[in-house]
UniProtKB/TrEMBL annotation:
Naturally occurring in which organism (per UniProt): Peribacillus faecalis
Entries under SUPFAM superfamilies matching the protein: Molybdopterin synthase subunit MoaE
Record-given protein name: Molybdopterin synthase catalytic subunit
Superkingdom assignment: Bacteria
One GO process term, biological-process aspect: Mo-molybdopterin cofactor biosynthetic process
UniProtKB keywords: Molybdenum cofactor biosynthesis, Transferase
GO molecular function: molybdopterin synthase activity
Annotated pathway: Cofactor biosynthesis; molybdopterin biosynthesis
EC number per UniProt: 2.8.1.12
UniProt key word Lyase: no
Length: 152
């Protein structure tokens, strides 16, 4: 599901398409954050990840982050695409592009966006490790959803 600037997708993310959404003649800077699946997490070898989302609410949360950014950093434009489903090592999980007249605002807004995604967007992660699997829970990993019968 997506709108013009914010999307939750089940296919590979094309970074250039996300960047094109924020390009503007007024932009003196565009920053891009690309979050990828890493192999090692806290000393454990990750084989793959699986993301699930409450998609309609996730898109609304991404829109909210975009509005917050536009309020905090006037004249910025943000586009965010997050992938769900099974992702292999090095695949792209999220792309955030921010354009702004000046680079500092673009950097700050981009960092703000990824932190807010982890705080408020209803996306959950399951990690597949060499020695088993675990639902990590929310993206800040403060609330685990590991309950009897949920972990493999």
């Amino acid at each position: 599901m997506e709108n013009e600037l914010f999307a939750i997708v089940e296919t590979s993310i094309v970074t250039d398409e996300v960047i094109q959404k924020v390009q503007s003649a007024d932009a003196g800077a565009i920053t891009v954050f690309i979050g990828t699946v890493r192999e090692m997490t806290n000393g454990k070898r990750t084989l793959s990840l699986e993301y699930e989302a409450y998609v309609s609410m996730a898109v609304k949360s991404l829109e909210k982050i975009g509005a917050e950014i536009e309020e905090k950093w006037p004249n910025t434009k943000v586009a965010i695409t997050h992938r769900i489903g099974r992702l292999e090592i090095s695949e792209t999980a999220v792309v955030i592009a921010v354009s702004s007249p000046h680079r500092q605002a673009a950097y700050e807004a981009n960092q703000y966006a990824i932190e807010r995604i982890k705080e408020i967007v209803p996306i959950w992660k399951k990690e597949y490790w060499e020695d088993g699997t675990k639902w990590i829970g929310d993206q800040l990993e403060r609330h685990s959803y590991a309950k009897e019968g949920l972990d493999d």
